[in-house]
Automatic annotation (TrEMBL):
It comes from the Bacteria. PANTHER family: OS07G0662800 PROTEIN (PTHR32195), TRYPTOPHAN OR TYROSINE TRANSPORTER PROTEIN (PTHR32195:SF26). GO terms for cellular component: plasma membrane. Keywords: Cell inner membrane, Cell membrane, Membrane, Transmembrane, Transmembrane helix, Transport. It is found in: Cell inner membrane. InterPro entries: Amino_acid_transport_2 (IPR018227). This is Amino acid permease. GO terms for biological process: amino acid transmembrane transport. It is a multi-pass membrane protein. The chain crosses the membrane at residues 27-49, 55-76, 96-121, 127-152, 164-182, 198-216, 236-256, 276-296, 317-338, 344-364, 385-410. Pfam families: Trp_Tyr_perm.
Length: 414
């Protein structure tokens, strides 16, 4: 082992907790983690969330937000490559921004993860009720058990699960989209319907759909032996995500029209195509929720370890205890009656979007000033100040609109 690998970094000297080295991820597993985390409840809700605005405003946001999110993910990627210790987002914020920034980032992780996991509990119950005729609570419990088990097993299990299920999801989506395009009742002119005045609320749900920023540090642990592949995996994963996010609402809206979309879109999609598609679409939806649950839940768990410096996150009893904090509250919240499926995603996207528009820039600036090592890859023109200011203004504007619509001053989107 070289002296470079055994030298003590400033982070460790300052007493920061470095996560235990993770098992190596393959490039495909890394891409699958991005796709699987992004293709969750968001892909099921954006068709319904755009039911007033229409498909073209949705497509506009998918392109813009997808590009901007990829840029901020690459900021985080360079920051992790400049940092020898394996820190999560809250740890990177503590190191390079300070205590207040660390708490803001941790709050963003908490809000986004709890909102997402709550939506997955609600959505999985509805889907299994429609598939099996059981109660929603029992359906959520059946979803909960394998979801929590893989989270407990750790990063390698998550990566492998994401890989196999993500490949299956791509096949299912391709089949369903092809069947939609070939069906005689499909009306492509439905894609031109809608009202651009309602486009702004769609923004925050689309922000949630691109929620894989949180798993970049965890991916960096898995790519520690081949760090140059990290940004490549991010770009490929986000490109695939865009194609899938655009294809699902295109098919649902073309087939059903804007007035006949359920909040979990695959229910109405499958019903319109026939019995085989009903089961296929809803099995896809369950897989989408499961992979995103693993990605966001795993990130939430490791951020708790990192923020509170709990030591090795692979110690069985300690991991199980923290896992309970991650998975039990969303299950309870899902059946509290306090929040709906789409609203859980909407407000999670609003809050986390603002934090994730600002914090990666500050983290990268700090990493470039005081990082441990020269990275094998770094951002170039995407760090231009004009671009960064534009990102912040866009996300702040979306948050202001969300608050105003909540208070009744501006129209909601659905």
């Amino acid at each position: 082992m070289s002296s470079e690998n055994i030298s003590i970094s400033p982070a460790i000297a300052a007493g920061e907790r470095a996560s235990a080295p993770a098992k190596s991820l393959s490039f495909l597993e890394g891409v699958a983690m991005i796709v699987g985390t992004n293709i969750g409840a968001g892909v099921l809700s954006i068709a319904y969330a755009s039911s007033k605005a229409g498909y073209l405003p949705l497509l506009f946001w998918l392109v813009l937000v997808g590009c901007l999110t990829t840029i901020t993910m690459l900021y985080v990627a360079e920051s992790t490559l400049r940092t020898r210790a394996h820190l999560q987002l809250s740890g990177l914020a503590r190191r390079y921004v300070g205590g207040f920034g660390s708490w803001l980032m941790f709050a963003s992780v908490c809000v986004n993860s709890v909102g997402a996991l709550t939506a997955y509990m609600t959505g999985s119950g509805k889907l299994l009720q429609s598939l099996l005729g059981i109660s929603p609570a029992l359906g959520s419990l059946l979803f909960f058990i394998p979801a929590a088990l893989v989270l407990y097993l750790g990063l390698k299990a998550i990566g492998r699960g994401e890989k196999f299920i993500s490949i299956g999801m791509v096949v299912m989506i391709a089949t369903l989209v092809a069947a939609t395009l070939l069906k005689e009742t499909t009306q492509m002119r439905n894609l031109l319907d809608g009202d651009w005045r309602f486009m702004v609320p769609v923004f925050s749900v689309v922000v949630f759909c691109f929620s894989a920023q949180y798993i970049v540090p965890e991916m960096a642990r898995g790519f520690a032996d081949k760090p140059a592949q990290l940004p490549k995996a991010i770009i490929v994963g986000m490109a695939i995500t865009f194609v899938l996010l655009a294809a699902v609402p295109l098919s649902v809206i073309a087939l059903s029209g804007l007035d006949n979309i359920s909040d979990v879109a695959t229910i109405s999609w499958g019903q319109a195509l026939g019995q085989w598609a009903f089961f296929s679409a809803n099995i896809f939806a369950l897989c989408a929720m499961l992979t995103s649950y693993w990605g966001l839940g795993g990130s939430f768990l490791t951020n708790i370890f990192d923020k509170f410096r709990l030591g090795d996150d692979e110690q069985p009893f300690r991991r199980f205890s923290v896992l309970l904090l991650v998975v039990v509250p969303p299950f309870a919240l899902a059946y509290s009656g306090l929040v709906s499926f789409v609203n859980a995603l909407y407000f999670a996207g609003v809050f986390s979007g603002v934090i994730l528009s600002i914090m990666p820039m500050l983290i990268l600036r700090g990493a470039r000033a005081s990082g441990d090592q020269q990275p094998l890859w770094q951002c170039s023109w995407i760090t231009h100040p004009i671009l960064q200011v534009s990102i912040v203004l866009l996300y702040m504007g979306g948050a202001v609109y969300a608050i105003a619509s909540l208070l009744g001053y501006l129209p909601a989107g659905w």
